Amino acid sequence: MLLNTNINAEEMVLDEGKTILDSEQKRQRLKELCEEYKRNNAIDASYYEKYPVKRGLRNADGTGVVAGLTQICDVHGYEMVDGKKTPAEGRLIYRGIEINEIVDGCTREDRYGFEEVVWLLLFGNLPDKIHLDRLKETIAAFRDLPTGFAEDVIMKNPSPNIMNKLARCVLTLYSYDQNPEDNSMENLMRQSMELIARLPTIMVTAYQVKRRYYDHKSMYFHPTKNEHTIAQSILRTLRWDKRFTEEEARLLDVCLILHAEHGGGNNSTFSTRVLSSSGTDTYSAIAAGIGSLKGPLHGGANHKVLEMTEYIKEGVTHWDNDGEVKDFLQKLIRREAGDRSGLIYGMGHAIYTLSDPRAVILKKHAINLAREKGFEDEFRLLESVERLAPEVFAGNKGDSKVICANVDLYSGLVYKMLGIPPEMYTPLFAIARIAGWCAHRIEETYSGG
Q: How far apart are CA 387 and CA 409, in angstroms?
């Protein structure tokens, strides 16, 4: 294509009359478009009270809006007393069983529990040994990716973001499925088992490729072992030497249990159910859940906690000094430090008030590993954040709302102690939550109509 020679250095005109803008001109045009949008699209905040509109599926007092029914999970964080929201200790219930009972049982008997939770969420009861062994065999059989998938889909198209790659790979699996649109129970169950088994393999493979192409480090691929649980398999395939301790694997197993499900109203599960209600395919529905979980106000919060902790460590000289820690937290809220968001990541929750049971459990299990691996000072710093943040919030915002630490406050440190890189924190959340997503998809498809 010939260019018109009567042009200046900043603007090139094609002989057809088209214009090529330089980078600065493009930025200016986009700025103008944004300003034009803002002038014509502002919604008066008072309209939400006038009509009234539920923002984020929440009532004005913070209580949730009933959007459907589920038998899979209950989440309780407050009680309604005389029409008033009253703080209460948090409860997380999988199919009628308290999360504390599930984790305590696994800990007492020194066994892995995530696969049991997968069965529980999907089928509604705890498996006996025969059913559990069959489930583990099924997951092991489905772990390998389709022939050529790793090379053609992951290695040839690396991504700097593992969550982005998970979503892309899930969507691409549609093309490797000979019956992707069939929403019969048998087909949904097959697709669920394949996704639960394959997602950890995709995650680790995507991370290794990301190391090579974006971090300029070596990548290494290890075959999985059929006898390994999902937690063991992740640690073995992630590490160059394939070595891990049972204490490490069991702590990761606890993390997976805690993240496996959180009711039908959380953002990613609700997204999965909404898409499932349209009759769309499994891969589209699960990819929607992954995309939702990626956000920093949902699953991405654990990575933001780690980032915030680094800001605190740099800005506070004496980590054991409550006054110094409190002063820095005030700077975070006033947008004077950190990422300038005004948030203290890992604190507060849409439902929990007095406590998040997941945070309580994870904190209890993490302290021993923190002592063993030399992270006790950092662990104590997070405890200080948990203790001081409610007072800082109340003092700076004049808000009497009761807040507590959520699971993200401690999960990032746990992953750090396990030697898991930060870019895998949220993907690990997805590895666990896909059990809940699949359970909700099947329930929505067969009970939501």
A: 12
